[in-house]
Design brief:
The structure is a single chain. The protein is built from 14 helices and 17 strands. The protein has helices at residues 18-29, 31-38, 69-74, 90-101, 111-127, 144-151, 166-178, 182-192, 200-203, 206-220, 239-247, 309-325, 366-376, 410-422; strands at 9-14, 42-48, 64-66, 80-83, 106-108, 132-133, 157-163, 230-231, 250-261, 264-275, 287-294, 298-305, 351-360, 381-387, 399-405, 408-409, 431-435. The strands form 2 sheets. Strands 7, 8, 9, 10, 11, 12, 13, 14, 15, 16 and 17 form an 11-stranded mixed beta sheet that branches. Strands 3-2-1-4-5-6 form a 6-stranded parallel beta sheet, sandwiched between helices. β9 (250-261) and β10 (264-275) form a beta hairpin. α4 runs parallel beside α5 (111-127) and α13 (366-376) packs antiparallel against α14 (410-422). It starts with 8 loop residues before the first strand and ends with a strand. The structure holds L-homoserine (HSE). The site of L-homoserine (HSE) has 7 residues, from α7.
């Protein structure tokens, strides 16, 4: 293993998909500039991938091929192991462990791996005195990891939230612009390659939850606790909700939010109403954005592309440049052994405003029944709106009643909606969307 500053940094990459090839292209495009910036050359020394024969559009001449990523991870031919295999278990986990155990620093873009095993891997990295860098794991090209870990070290963070899934933002943007329903836009997004054939991780909110659990650790100095993230996806959002949101002065975004409360830390991913004129409401299509609130910096927002070859490779190469320059701080901003336990603030204690859509029959007394139930749970209403389905005047087909509440607890909100549904006032399961201050 090379140690002198002027020795090249020899890189091994496992996983030669879009991002892996993007990293190789960036290293070659910017080779000379990177050498100047880092004081040493960054050289691709070894690669490993499933298929050797596949045409990738990048030359692998003079690069050693490894059939097994674990062998590459432990090879004396490399100084740093880049894991771009993906998946939270299997070869990704095994090869990262193999690299760290043999004192090779690791760069990864793997959010699922870190969400599940981040604390343990950080302990392993720190025990072996090497870095584990993962800028590309959260919001692709946006440098939010370094921002939280380094640039904002002199702050106490109170809240971090953002749009961290381009697929969901693309779908919600098109639903809003075109007035079409979720299923139609999803099918089109899949045809156009903006959504995966199996979109569960994206639209179900799990991809955002992986990223959020990493940001929570960085922001609050706690161990990663992915299982405590409350997750709701976007599949129950209708074009009627987006239209109602617009007429009430809001937009609906899939947000990941980590916030300190009196009872602990909330980690939640759900469709969220944000004021139409807030900065986060202006993030459209596949773009991502992360907002951080710190006691000294105030509010800070970073926006950019959260996925794709160029943006993700940009973050991987920045991690490599950091390693080439030397110096590695603790993986999550403080030594892994000193990360605090995560104290979960339960969702039922969440306090905030709510949007509610109730599909009800259009007959006398319905509105009174709704407001009575809300009053029984101590919920104060900010606005109330009744809408007939398009082209109808209510009557037998029913109407949508849309409510915006003042701040209340999730427990009361759920209680009221359960009763409204179970006593037959609402004909469909009520729609409930949390409103976030932004
Ligand atoms: N599938 C993610 C997105 C990118 O749609 O933003 C990788 O996490």
């Amino acid at each position: 293993m090379s140690s002198g500053k002027s020795e090249p940094l020899k890189i091994g990459i496992a996983g030669l998909g879009t991002v892996g090839c993007g990293v190789i292209k960036s290293l070659r495009t910017h080779g000379q500039a990177l050498t100047q910036k880092c004081g040493r050359e960054l050289v691709l020394a070894g690669v490993s991938a499933r298929s050797r024969a596949r045409e990738r559009g990048v030359s692998l001449d003079n690069v050693t091929w490894y059939d097994d990523a674990r062998q590459l991870a432990q090879s004396n031919e490399i100084d740093v192991f880049v894991e771009l295999i993906g998946g939270e278990e299997g070869m990704a986990l095994e090869s990262v462990k193999a690299a760290l155990s043999s004192s090779r620093p690791v760069v990864t873009a793997n959010k699922a791996l870190l969400a599940r095993h981040g604390t343990k891997l950080a302990e392993l990295a720190e025990k072996n005195g090497v870095a584990l860098n993962y800028e590309a794991a959260v919001a692709g090209g946006i440098p939010i990891v370094k921002t939280l870990r380094e640039s904002l070290a002199g702050n106490e963070i109170s809240r971090v939230y953002g749009i961290m899934n381009g697929t969901c933002n693309y779908i919600l943007t098109r639903m809003e612009n075109e007035g079409k329903d979720f299923a139609d836009i999803l099918a089109d997004a899949q045809k156009l390659g903006y959504a995966e054939a199996d979109p569960t991780a994206d639209i179900g909110g799990f991809d955002t939850a992986h990223k959020l659990s990493i940001l929570t650790s960085l922001a609050f100095g706690t161990v990663i606790d992915f299982d405590s993230v409350y997750v709701e996806g976007i599949d129950r959002i209708t074009s009627a909700d987006l239209e109602a949101a617009a007429s009430l002065g809001y937009r609906i975004k899939l947000l990941g939010v980590a916030v300190k409360t009196d009872t602990g830390i909330e980690q939640r991913v759900h469709p969220t109403m944000v004021p139409r004129h807030s900065a986060i409401a202006e993030i459209h299509d596949v773009f991502n954005a992360v907002v951080v609130e710190g006691d000294f910096v105030g509010e800070l927002m970073l926006m950019g592309r959260g996925a794709g070859e160029g943006p993700t490779a940009s973050s991987v190469v920045s991690d490599l440049a950091d390693l080439a320059r030397g110096g590695a701080g603790p993986v999550f901003g403080r030594p892994a052994a000193e990360l605090l336990p995560y104290r979960r603030a339960g969702m039922r204690a969440h306090e905030g405003g709510y949007y509610v859509r109730l599909d009800v029959p259009d007959r006398p007394g319905i509105m009174a029944a709704i407001t009575t139930r809300m009053a029984e749970y101590g919920i104060s209403l900010e606005s109330i709106m009744q809408r007939a389905p398009e082209g109808e005047q209510g009557g037998m087909h029913g109407v949508s009643v849309i409510l915006i509440t003042h701040e209340t607890t999730e427990s009361d909100m759920r209680g009221a909606l359960e009763v409204i549904f179970s006593d037959g006032t609402a004909s469909e399961k009520p729609q409930m969307i949390r409103i976030e201050r932004a």
